[in-house]
Amino acid sequence: MEDNNRFLEHTEEKLSSLDGYFNIAAEEDGFFLTVYPQQGTGEPVKVPKIIEALAELGIDKVDNALLTRVVREALGTPVKVAEKPVEAEPDIQIQISRDKMEATLQVIKPQGCRPVSIEEVMDRIKNAGITYGIDLAAVETAFAKPGTIVACANGLRPVDGINASITYLVDLENKGRPAELEDGRVDFKNLNMFTVVHADELLAEKVPATPGTAGMDILGNEVFPKPGRDVVLPKGKNVYVDEGLKVYAAQAGQLVMLNNKLNVIPMIEIKADVDLSTGNIEFVGSVIVKGSVQTGFTVKAEGNVEIAGSVSGGVVEGKNVVVRMGIQGMNRGYIKAAENVVSKYIENATVYAGKDVIVSDVVLHSKVSAAKRVIVEERRGLIVGGQISAGEEIRAKVIGTNSATNTDIEVGVNPKLREEYQELRKEVKKIELNLEQTKKALTVLKAMNQNTLPPDKHEMLLKLTKAQFHLIGQIETMRNRLAEIEISLEEMRYGHVKVADTAYPGVKLVIGTLVKPLRDAAKFVKFYAEDGEIKTSSYK
To answer: Which of 162, 266, 355, 533 has its CA 20 to 30 A from that of 217?
Structure first.
């Protein structure tokens, strides 16, 4: 009984000192505050504690006077102290670049923000019109890390076309660069001063422009590429274009780039001497040399060669060779023309001509050979020393000297032509034998039953038929050439030497197979062959 009394007294004592307390309830129409008073000596509720609790609930603005009154009264009844705050909306920012090739995403979740899902973010991206190149991993990063800016979509950029270009198949860069010899030394006689091309040689080729590859922007629109720019073919003079892409030389000549165009010039003009400054000249067209050809240098052309100065111990080859000042061979150089050689003089030189050698002054101690004529009639018109030969005629004012200088004069002989004639006859016999064997084989094959002819025999029949026509064509061509040579050789039978002034002792005349050394001087005379001997008549 006594214990119960002490327990009750102790309980009563505790209840006499209880602190006051409060409760904040969130209802649909706002936040309600209930303040309960203290008991006995307990502590009353403090306003700052309530303000702090409201702030944790996101309520920053409160009526302090109302709070003070509710706390002071502590009626234990709910009192509305604040409106229920509206939940903040998430800020989903999508920025599309000006060229529509990229979009960025930023997800901002303010305090009190309502819940947001990644599906909602994706819907916002699609509502912005973005349908291509969405990067799902980047979207998830932006969603997981609010405030982070990421590239959420990327377009496919177009690939622009490549510009057309010209590929040059001839070397235009190394002109004037000396050729290098095998031992590493530089050959300054071959300077490659000119770019020489042949007929139908491919000079340049255009690589066409490409249209490029289309792309796609993030809105799903096709983005067209910038096509490559075209270039004009470098077509100049004496060239032609094939397939609209390739430039060919229309003829042989010197290739020159003028105004960004390829030109083929059928002539080279050397404005000074052919020497170390130019190197050797080798050209498929014609060559004009305003100066001279110096010792040890070469000019070779498939066209004509015209030299305003002289040739001093050099080599010159061409269709026709004209040397205005003269040829000084120095016993080392030579002149060779497919047709004619024309010069003021020839001294200590070797000269060959497919037709005529025409000299306006003198021929001294030289070897001169012409298929048709050697003519030395102007000015002094003198032939002294050496060996002069022609197929048909030699004419001069004076041959030899009064000191009996040995001078060999020979006409009616063209060793090169006779050699060609003999070789052709051998070749014709060989082809005629092949033709005869081909015809025999064809006769055998045609005698067989054509309906049962094996495939290999049929193929052989076709090959032999083609070969027969080919051989017949070859024989006809060769016989025509033989006829031409025979006419030329017949004309040589009437070869002669004409001297307008004097032929001196020391001159040896050869006409065909006949030989006649001159014992006495002869004036105004013509030498010719007749009845097996060399005869003379008056110069006419």
So the answer is: 162
